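Appendix B, example 12.
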Amino acid sequence: MSRPTNGPDEWWLTVLWVADDEGVASFTDVAPSSGPPADPPLARLGPAIAGALSGLIREEDGRLAVRLTPVVAPEDATRPWRCPLAVRAAFKWEAVRQASLPPAQLAELVLTAFRGSVEGLHRR
């Protein structure tokens, strides 16, 4: 995880990735053993992270203020799992929750949610 920054309009920004000895992993490395599903990995990863951070993320206009985008888009849009497992993440936190948590603890919660959500991609 990169060092989080506070961006415009109260967005908390960071980059999250999975790496091994060979470098940044691919989403295909964590796909179910039966093969990658048809939907993009972020369609599964986003709700999983949002669920893991339930109660921390601000709701705006009926939607949770969380945005995930791949750092590198897949070369072939029909094979969305074939890209590095690295995402840009943006969150808007509930003000009281953010004020009550030290920045390092908030980052640890995000990292733990990301880790569990990535592990969950393999099980689905």
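The longest strand covers residues 12-17. Strands lie at 5-6, 12-17, 19-20, 23-24, 59-60, 63-64, 66-70, 86-91.
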